[in-house]
Structures are given as C-alpha cells and as structure tokens.
Design brief:
This protein is of the alpha+beta class. It has four helices and four strands, in the order αβαβαββα. It has a four-stranded antiparallel beta sheet with strand order 1-2-4-3, with helices on one face. A hairpin with a 4-residue loop joins strand 3 and strand 4 (100-105).
C-alpha cells in the first residue's frame, strides 16, 4: 500500500510489486540450492516471515500512462522499504545476484519485549 501511495503522490502509474518467493519447504530449498549458489539450507523462507520482491520486474495493472522506468520503480521501492526498516517493521537485504529485496518481517511483540528488558 505504501509503495502505491507514494507512486500516486509522485505522478502516478499503475504498478504492482512482483513477489518472487515466500514460503519454502525443505524440498524447495534443496531444489533451489542446485541452481542458486546463494541459497542456504537454513533459509529463513522456511519460517513464513521472509519474502522476496523483485526490483527488476514490476507488473502494470493497466496499459496506460504514465509509464515508469524499472530504475525509477526500484528506487521508489527501496525508499519505501528503508522507511519500513527505519520504523522497525522489517529487515531488508539487497540481493544483487537475484534482482530482489529480501525482506524479513519483524514481530512487534518480540521487539517490545526486548526493548523492555
């Protein structure tokens, strides 16, 4: 929602984010490791708190202007993710080899408990 809201504030464009990975099983991880050298056995995708969003491919909802470059959309997405990270809502890793942002959601209740101790 924040990505689309920011996009509207900056002149529009009707784009959706492309989620490239969410939950992975052990079998998924084994299969992925055969073709992706950065994949690890202990993938955090196995816990349902991590997902990847492509920064090289965005989906247009409608074929009408204004059109945005992939680089412009990538920068906007990076800005939004940085805000969410700074708010303590997630961890973000920039994945160069796979063309995605690797995002792990932070649990508020756990963070609150840690802050109080």
């Amino acid at each position: 929602r924040r990505f689309n809201s920011t996009l509207r504030e900056r002149g529009g464009g009707d784009y959706r984010l492309k989620v490239t990975s969410v939950l992975r099983t052990e079998a998924n991880v084994r299969s992925l490791r055969r073709v992706n050298r950065v994949a690890v056995d202990s993938s955090v995708h196995r816990f349902g708190t991590t997902f990847d969003i492509s920064y090289t491919h965005f989906m247009m909802n409608h074929l009408q202007p204004p059109y945005r470059s992939a680089e412009d959309l990538k920068e906007l997405l990076a800005e939004v993710l940085l805000q969410l990270r700074d708010e303590g809502r997630c961890f973000v890793k920039y994945e160069r080899t796979t063309g995605c942002f690797h995002i792990t959601v932070r649990r508020r209740d756990t963070d609150d408990k840690l802050a109080k101790s």
